[in-house]
Amino acid sequence: MRTRIKFCGFTDAGDLRDAAALGIDAAGFVFYRKSPRHVDEDVAAALRRALPSWVSAVGLFVDEEPDEVRRLASRVGLDVVQFHGDESPDRCRASVPEGLPWWRAVRMRSPGVLLESFDRFGEAEALLLDSFSHGYGGSGTGFDWSWIPAQRPLPIVLSGGLTPDNVADAIASVRPSAVDVSSGIQSDDPRRKAHARMERFVAEVLRADAKLCQTPTR
């Protein structure tokens, strides 16, 4: 199975069109107001309209009121809601329109945090693993991939400090269902993407998948 690719933190339609042309599977829009990549609902809705039908729109929220998450998901046309704060399982369930899948971000402080999250968030479509920080919405730093067990009851979206330089090693080590990157592909302006970095990131994911396909099974 090929590794799916999510690029997060889009604010610019040109960057989004470039990323879609490179073959990403999902594009993330940040609704956390303290993030440098925050977008309001009008901008997010316009970006959503720029996406081709085969690229999913993911909305990132941090401890937002359930009514507001549902409103924005419908207004923008989100395909997935990603919870990145301290939301409980009940709050996650209450925050999504009926039938809409959701992901739960896990801030990887220790191996035990992930094992606990498998139990607590079993209704999530996937767990997104990010490094622990005292802030929210992504830190741009990595964590110890050996904390992730080979056998998992839920799909894993690997995040946290991924770049074109390390994503192939990450895929070989973790074999996630998807990888997620934001700061690792940004330009000098944190609200914009660097096309060359996006292109190389996708190429490295494809290279890693091709190498795994050539690895004999035991």
Structural class: alpha/beta
Number of domains: 1
Calculate the mean pLDDT score and round it: 94
* CATH architecture type: Alpha-Beta Barrel
Estimated share of beta-strand residues: 15-25%
- Based on CA atoms alone, the radius of gyration comes out at 16 Å
Could you spell the SSE succession in H and E letters?
Answer: EHEHEHEHEHEEHEH
Number of helices: 7
Distance between the termini: 17 Å
Which terms summarize this structure?
TIM Barrel; 35% helix; alpha/beta; globular; 218 residues
Describe the protein's architecture and organization:
- This protein has 218 residues and is an alpha/beta fold.
- The protein is globular and about 50 Å long.
- The chain has helices spanning 13-22, 41-50, 66-76, 89-95, 111-120, 167-174, 195-214, and strands spanning 4-8, 26-30, 56-61, 80-83, 102-108, 126-131, 156-158, 178-181.
- The chain has an 8-stranded parallel β-barrel with strand order 1-2-3-4-5-6-7-8, surrounded by 4 helices.
- The longest helix has 20 residues, at 195-214.
- It has one domain: Aldolase class I (TIM Barrel).
